[in-house]
Structures are given as C-alpha cells and as structure tokens.
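Dear colleagues,

I hope this message finds you well. In preparation for our joint manuscript, I am sending the PCDGM protein (Aegotheles bennettii) sequence together with its predicted structure, so that both groups work from identical material. I would be grateful if you could confirm receipt.
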Amino acid sequence: AQLRYSVPEDREPGSWVGDLAKDLGVDLQSLATRNLRLVSEGGQQHFQVDLVAGVLLLDSRLDREALCGQSPTCSLHLQLVMEHPLQLHRVEVDVLDVNDNAPQFPKPEVVLEITEVANPGTRLPLEVAEDPDMGSNSISTYELSSSEHFALSINVRGDGVKMPEIVLEKALDREKVAVHHLTLTALDGGNPVKSGTAKVTIHVLDANDNPPVCDPPISKVNLEENMPVGTLVTKLNVTDLDEGPNGDVEYSFKISNNAPGKFTKLFSLDPRTGEIRTKAPLDYEESSAYEIAVRARDKGSPAMEGHCHLRVELIDINDNSPEIVLTSLSSPVQEDATPGTVIALIGVKDSDSGDNGQVRLQVAKELPFKLVSSFKEHFSLVTNGPLDREKASGYNITVRAVDSGFPQRATQKTFYLQIADVNDNAPNFSSPFDTAHVQENSLPGTSVFSLSASDPDEGSNAKLTYSILDNGMQDVPISTYFRIDQDNGTIYTVRALDYEQDKVFQVPVEVKDAGSPALSSTAVVHVFVLDENDNAPTIVYPSVPKGSAFHQTIPALAEPGYLVTKIVAVDADSGHNAWLSYQLQESAEALPFQVERRSGEIRVAQALRESEDPHRLVVEVRDNGMPSLSSSVVIVIAPEENSVQDFAKSLDLPKSSPKDTNLTLYLIISLVSISLVSCVMFALVAARC
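The corresponding structure tokens are as follows:
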C-alpha cells in the first residue's frame, strides 16, 4: 500500500504529519506487537512514529530549498515495515514551499556610466535577482526608485525569467547632477511579500560648458551681534565644473544703484578665498539683517560669472536693559479709593527681541498696590487694599522691570504717590472730662480753662472750631456764664460768678472740624467756683434794726461767769471765710463783761457795784477771710435789783474753757471739709452719668 502526506517546510519538530493507524486500518494496540518501524530511503531521518498514538510526526525542521533545490516538486519517500505478518508500506511526504527567502541581487551595488549628451531611450541592462523559493514565492517583479531622468523596463526571457533594464527618459546635465543614485528593488509573490534591494549609481560624463555656481545660490547665516571685528561670517561655496582657468574663480561685492551697499562698511570679502568677515561692530537694534550680493567670475574667455546672495541675520543678545515709561500718574489719590482704582499707566519696552525683550514688571509686595497687564507692554498700577493717609501720607513706589534674557537685565523707576486726605477721623479731646477752678467775682473775660483737641486729618479736615453746648442742666443758659474762643478752645467768663449762688458748672464743649461732612466730639469741663470773702458776718441774735441797740437786763448781784446773753452770727461764705470770732470793741472805760471768742457768749467778768449805771457794749463779729470782714451789734446791759433772768445763773451753766473752744473749732472744720468733699463727689458722679 502507499500513503501520501504533505507538510509545510516551516513546521517545528514534533508536528503532526499523518494518522498511520487510521490510514493503514491497524488497531493501535497491535502497532507495538507487530513491531512497526520506519525506514527512510535517504541518509537522514526526518520523521518518527508515535506507536502510542499511531501517528507520523516530524523529527526535524525541513528546508525545501536544501532538500530539493529549484525542483518544482519536493517529496520524501519512507517505508513502513510491520511483522506478523510481514508487511511493507510506502509513504510519500510532499514538502510544501514557504516564502522564507527574500530575493537577493548578485551584487549589492551596481555602478553604471552614461554621457551627459546621451539621447533619451538609451538602455542600461541590470543583473537579475535570485530567489530560492519556487512558484508564486519566487521573483514576481522589480521596482526602481523615482527619478526625473530614468525609468525601469522589464523584459521576460523565453524561460520566464524577468530581465530588468534602466531606460533614459530625459536629457542629462552633469553640471546639475553628476551622479545619479537609484535603488532597484526585487519583489517576490509570497504572502507576506519579501524583497531585496541593490544600489544603482549612474555617473554622468562631463562636457565643458559651465559658469561658476554658488552652492547654495541663496544662503543664510546667523551671527550674534557685537561679535569682535574680523569674525568669520561664512566662506562662499562656489564651484566651476570646468578645469584650468575656466574653473579659477574671483569674488567681489555686487553693488547696484538701488542697493547702495551699506553692508560694504560692515563686511569685507577675500577675492581669492570667498571668506566674508566683519570689519565693524554689528548692532541688532540698528538692523537685524543684511543682504549681501557677491559676484563670482571665472577667468575663461569669454569669462562667465555666477552670483551668490547671502542673508546675514543677527542673533540678538541681551545687551539692552528694559526701559520703564510712566505714561500717566494720578497723584494725589483719595485715601478712600476702592481697591482696583487705577493709579498709574506704565509702559515698558526693551530694544532686544525674543526672550531678551520679554519684560516682567514687578512692584513690592508689601505695598497696597499691584500691577495689572492692560495689553502688550502696558500695565496699570491699581490699589490692592485700603489706604490710610494717617498711617502713610504717601508712598515711594519702585517699579522693577526684568527681562527674560540670559543673563537677565533689570531696571527700576521710583515715583512718589501722595495720598489725599478724606475727613474720616473725628476730632478727639485729650480727655472727655476736665476740671477747672475760677475765683468768684472774677472780672468778665477771665480765662477759666483751655481745652485741647486733635484731629489726625489735615487741611480743612483738621481745622477745628470749639463751641459751648447748652445742655439745659442750669436754669440759666450756660452761655450766659461762659464763652469759648472758637479757634483755640479757651473758656472765658461772661460775667462775675457768685459762689454763694452757683458752686459748680458743667460746661459741655463741642469741637467740630471743617470737613464735609463735618465730624465732631464733645467733652465736659467741670468748673468749680472758688469762694471769696465777699460776705460780712450776719448777726442773727439779737436781731435789732440798724442803728439801734439791744437792751439786756441782768441781776445787779450777778456774779462773775454769769451768762448775760449769746451773740449768734452766720457767714454766707464758706471755709476759712466762714470762721467767725467774737470780741468787744475797745472802750475808754473798763467793762465788767467779756465775750467768748468762739461761742459769742457774753458773761460777767467781775462783780458789779451797787446802783451801777447801764453798760454799753459793742460786740464785733469778724470772719477769717482775707481781708477780714466784720459786723457789730450794740448791747446795753442794765443791772436791776429784781430783773427777770432770761438765762440761768452762772452756777447753773458750765463755764467755758479753752478745751471747749478748741472742740467747737474742730467740729466746724470737720463739717466744712465733709461738705466740700461730698459736693465734689456728687458733681463728678453726675457728670459721668
């Protein structure tokens, strides 16, 4: 029997080839007992039998090209031998071609020659590429890289081999292109397609017909500004494909009437080498580029010339500092300006270009201002917070401009911004309550007290005017007692004051500035009237009409110490001015009576004689003021035998002693002191309330 299988050449060892047991019709269990074995007709064993599975497996990787070469078919013949009974089976395995080889040219590079005067249609044969694969996997076609002058032609030989040829399609010019480089590609018909390439170099043979040529005819050179004089700008690349004098070139600047050639002052040209160098400093800000025309002339006869055009573009370096221009400044600015108020318009410019001309504007962060970009290179300085003229009446604002070049350049400009005052502060007294003292009976216009107020504003907002308010606390308007100087705050009396009528005044004073709207504040001055000794003592007892005398009778036998009567007097003044003392006016005769200095008691000083005439006493009451004031009363004392006694006998009354007199004085002083302190305290409490 004969079995036939096929396997692609790229299968891995161990791959399944065919099911022997099924195709032979043999039970799997009998394969081992019948000693199934494989005999190869060649010297190399490429397959093996799996007795367990009864299948034919690939033992090693197959290479169709190595096994069969260029043969159209490739088959491997095997023999299977089984015993009991002995049987021989023939197995044929077809090795299928796989596109595993790329086309390949005999030489990787082909060099051809052609004269520049060759006619279109001229053919240049090429060598054929080889591909070991067969059938559709072999060479399918050829391709040539695009060319203005050449194309590809493919001819088929009688054996089917494709022959590539290069065909000239357009006339050549060696001075334009002396060598043509093409790429020839061979493609097979496999999937995926594989290819091989060869470089084709075609040399064009010369004819002497060329002028000098600049390469490139128009060129550009970038050069930094401020380079040292003599710096090489460029060396012109001029070629003349001719030889001898026809290829010897001289250089010169080309100057026309339309282009006067300013560049000749800045650049020099070597006529032999074509080197262009600087001969003066170059400034980008003066001109950023220069156009230079150069004539290249050979020495042939007739001479032929070419022209080179060079554009020298200067590279800007950061050699200019930014410039700050203060376009507008609103100074002064109101201190109540809202955030965002435009203060100044600032322009900035930098003669440099690119990053060297990109300028950032900065202002100190601690200032209540910020910069806002209006449009390119223009900024607005606006308020960035509240202003307070009382804290800062003006600002020295420093604006700093920094470019982005390397190294950076910076400049700064400082200007002064004045803050205009707004009436936002009320006048303020140094104290809301003050105390003043004035002597009673002072002349009208007497200075009582000077108030002082301050206002941190300025100008008319700080111009202060003082006035007295009428608070209605007194029965009579306070303005009838006092007036105030509206400019300096000094309080004066309008009329004489009477301590006995008014002891203390509350004078409310208002200070107002001249701002719009006006602001004000108040203070209260407590004016205490100081007592003056302007009231003479008044005798209360005995009360007698002026010019009359008080008659008092006493027993004729009244003994010393007998209380005759008591003088009672009062004084409208206070303090020392109200301290009273009693005494008898001196008389020509000695009187048998005495008056207690402090109490005013009149007592018998010595025993009276019988049938003694009435005694006329003048008792004087004097206060302790400066100067001292006094009053007097006339008392006529008549001794009588059976006089009705108005007072107790001397034995029934305690006699006055110096100790009693001092005690009375101390009591008077204490009462007066307590009264004064109480009045002051009540006045202060009332004022604060």
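For the figure legend, we might mention the following. The longest strand covers residues 195-205. Helices lie at 20-24, 28-33, 64-68, 658-688.

With kind regards,
E.M.
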